[in-house]
C-alpha cells in the first residue's frame, strides 16, 4: 500500500497549490513517503522538494484511505493512505514550476471551484476550516477519479 503525505500552506487568505499537467487538476504539494520516514518528515520533505520553500509549523489535519475501484465499484484495483497537513506560513520563495507541474497561489475560496479530485476538495476545505479538528475517512474512486462514495469522521481536541 502506498503512503502519501501532502501539505497545504495557507497564508494571507491564499493557498499554494500545484497544478498537475496530466488532467489540469490542482493538488496540495506532496508525494510518496520513503521507507522508515514519518508522515511528518515526509510532508515537509515532499513540500520542500516540490516548492523550494519550507513550511512553518505544519500540523496533521486528515488521514484518509483512498480506494480505486472498478467501474461497478465492487472490486478494489488499488489502495493508498493519504496524510494531509496544513501550515500557516512558509520560509523562502516557492518555485514557479517543477517537474510535477506549476505552483500557483489562489484565494482560499477558489478551493470550492478549482478543478481537482472531489476528495481532495473535501479534505483541503476541511483542513483550512477546522483548526481544532482532525478528519478521518475513506474515498472510493473509479480509475478515472470519479468519486463513487465517501465516509468521513471528525474528531475535535477535547472530545
Characterise this structure:
The chain has 159 residues and is α+β, with helices and mostly antiparallel strands. The chain contains two helices and twelve strands, in the order ββββαββββββαββ. The longest helix has 13 residues, at 39-51. It has helices at residues 39-51, 118-129; strands spanning 2-11, 14-19, 26-27, 30-32, 54-55, 59-69, 76-87, 90-91, 97-98, 101-107, 133-141, 147-156. It has a domain at 2-63 and 86-134: Nucleoside Triphosphate Pyrophosphohydrolase. A hairpin with a 6-residue loop joins β2 and β3 (26-27). Helices cover 16% and strands 48% of the residues.
Which key features would you list for this structure?
two-stranded antiparallel sheet, Nucleoside Triphosphate Pyrophosphohydrolase, alpha+beta, 12 strands, 159 residues, 2 helices, ten-stranded mixed sheet, single chain
Secondary structure layout plus pairing:
Blueprint: E1 2-11, E2 14-19, E3 26-27, E4 30-32, H1 39-51, E5 54-55, E6 59-69, E7 76-87, E8 90-91, E9 97-98, E10 101-107, H2 118-129, E11 133-141, E12 147-156
Parallel strand pairs: 1-7, 6-11
Antiparallel strand pairs: 1-2, 1-4, 2-3, 2-10, 5-8, 6-7, 9-10, 11-12
Output the structural class: alpha+beta
Q: Please give the alpha-carbon distance between the first and last residues.
A: 31 Å
CATH class of the domain at 2-63 and 86-134: Alpha Beta
The CATH homologous superfamily of the domain at 2-63 and 86-134 is named Nucleoside Triphosphate Pyrophosphohydrolase
